[in-house]
Amino acid sequence: FEAIPVGNESGNMSKGSKKKPGPAPKSEQRAKAEPVPGDEATSKAEQQSAAELEACFMKALEKRMGGLEMTEDNVRKVLLAMSPEEQRALAEEGEALKRELLQNEEHADEAKKFRAEVNKNAEARGLPTEADGEHLTKGVLAFLNAEGDEASGPVPTRRLLIMLASSPYLAKLALADAAAGGQTGEAPPGRAGEARAEPADIDALEQALAGLEVDGFAPDQRAGRPPFVRRNLTLLCGHLHRERLPESLVLRDSTKRAQGAAAGRASKLSEMLFRYALQNRWVKPALAATEVQALLTNGLWDGSEAAKRRMAERMAEAGLKLPRLKMAVSATDARPGRKVTVKAEVYRTHVYSEEEAAALEVGGESAAAHAVDKAAEERAAQGQVRAEAGAAPSEAGPQEGWWVVGEAIRENGDVPVEAAARHNALVGFAPLTAPLTLPTMTCEFSFDAPETPGEYKVMVHCRSTGCVGVDVRKKVTFKVLPAIFVKRPAPAATAKAEEAEEEAREREPREEQPPPLEAEAPPPLIAAA
After folding, report:
1. pTM for this entry
2. Measured distance CA(289)–CA(405) in Å, rounded
3. Fewest beta carbons within 10 Å, which of 72, 111, 243, 397?
4. Which residues are CB-contacts of 374 (< 8 A; sequence separation ≥ 6)?
5. What CA–CA distance (Å, rounded) separates 270 from 288?
6. CA distance linking residue 269 with residue 266, whole number of Å
């Protein structure tokens, strides 16, 4: 709603009355675009210098180091040993410092060096870089500012997959293919067995996807597609539709490895997009990112009933239950500009008994490992440190991870609005984690109420990035009550009243007190013993 527009999505919400306020001017939207829900420490942090913020963060980090030397290896070990709550607390300590260094022009040189170092380390570790973030942002803004029926609905899966396939992160795979002889189908000496998509396999896979009428593979949609985008998109869609492809289609092992590499990178990019969407309050891209990440993780084509049945079969083979959730949501009423608090209670009807959970941990090593991997993926999506390969699972055992996202509902009616104000806004979010035996999860988030009194609606989504077709959502209504105005005397009238009172006191007769006798002394405060 108008109090919290961010980026290219207005926060305007649907209002119960017929009269709807128009969107705020662009200048006003830009002025209000900075605050992020849950970031109460921002205003205090802005008043501190970079040195003070760095000192606060280093003090918090040293406290958690427990006397260990401040080396990179020791810091990594301490971070991995922290609980999710401790990791989030430390991240909040450093958020203000990062914001100061990256946004304050006085630290432009340091920020440039920081970004260069981060991108260098990310590229060395095979992770997305800042260029990928810029690419995703450009694609999201193109969708949000587009005209037509497609722009009014959710982000199409095809559009999001093309964004991932055309990213610099996946383009590097296509370039490596070309360097490895992928254009000729011949492997140079020493490169046999590497991940390389054979051109003949790409052609056959593309034809098979077109036969399944997969969105994006009609002749008119394929025309003019750049070769590296064609390669990556074909591999990604082949991964998602692998169980629907004809049995006669057999890919070479090198192509299968290339397909796995493309799917893994696309999953990391969708995770990056989800983070960007949360930061910029893009609710449609955030929801689309969770869906695509779940599809890529499981190799399923969509959230249809057939895909959900296949998801349940796979989980049953691993000794796990398909998640089934119910959700109750409440919201507080508020005065204009005050905080509205939304509380969500999520009930896990698939809760495990103690015996079932123990069987997963003791009797079924493969099932337990599967559950731990899933929990690790969810923790990574929540901004937590991903455990290194071979690291022992947490003492709490396998856990489920979810995201709760609040969407402000806007109903435009016949009122013309700008493209930047057409979309609903993300007003809050919160992560949820639970051990397998916990029946109920709860969380809450807050945001500023709109300035116009009336009835407003928020759609609360509970999303998974690890399972397909298990998400739930619930609509909640709250009221913005009329503002309370306190009548106070005008400043001029108050000053005149004080002057008249002072003059009256001066005119009052005063009783003169006799001077004290010189010989008299004040009595002691404490009687002498």
Report:
1. 0.70
2. 13
3. 72
4. 398, 400, 401, 466, 467
5. 9
6. 5
Sheet holding 339-348, edge to edge: 325-331, 339-348, 440-448
Q: How far apart are CA 114 and CA 102, in angstroms?
A: 9
Cα 124 from chain centroid (whole Å): 25
In angstroms, the CA 204 to CA 244 distance is: 14
Residues belonging to the chain: 529
Rounded distance between C-alpha atoms, residue 241 and residue 214, angstroms: 9
Contacts 24+ apart (CB under 8 A), 411-414: 411/14, 411/15, 411/20, 412/20, 413/20
d(CA 226, CA 221): 12
State the amino acid at position 96 in one-letter form.
A
For residue 473, give both structure tokens. Answer: 């959502």
Give the residue ranges of DSSP H helices in 104-156.
108-124, 130-144, 149-152
**Residue holding tokens 């990391």?**
268
Q: Which residues contact 415 (CB under 8 A, 6 or more apart)?
A: 20, 22
Asked if 80 and 385 touch (Cβ cutoff 8 Å), the reply is yes
Sequence-distant (≥ 6) Cβ neighbours of residue 467 within 8 angstroms: 294, 298, 311, 315, 322, 323, 374
Each of the 529 residues of the chain gets a pLDDT tens digit; together they read 433 333 333 334 444 433 333 333 333 333 333 333 334 444 444 445 656 656 676 777 777 777 777 787 777 777 777 776 677 677 776 666 666 666 667 667 777 787 788 788 888 888 899 999 999 999 999 999 888 777 778 999 999 999 999 999 999 998 888 877 644 444 443 344 567 899 999 999 999 999 999 999 999 999 999 999 999 999 999 999 999 999 999 999 999 999 999 999 999 999 999 999 998 999 999 999 999 999 999 999 998 899 999 999 988 888 889 999 999 999 999 999 899 999 999 999 999 998 888 887 755 444 444 444 544 444 444 333 333 333 334 445 678 899 999 999 876 444 343 444 457 889 999 999 999 999 999 999 999 999 999 999 999 999 999 899 899 999 999 999 998 876 665 666 666 777 777 777 777 666 555 555 444 444 444 444 3
In DSSP notation, 292-349 reads HHHHHHHT-S-SSHHHHHHHHHHHHHTT-PPP-EEEEEEE--B-TTSEEEEEEEEEET
Q: Which residue has the tokens 């985008």?
A: 229
What are the start-end ranges of the H helices in 145-242? 149-152, 157-165, 168-179, 199-211, 219-222, 227-240
What count of Cα atoms within 13 Å lies in the side-chain half-sphere of residue 440?
6
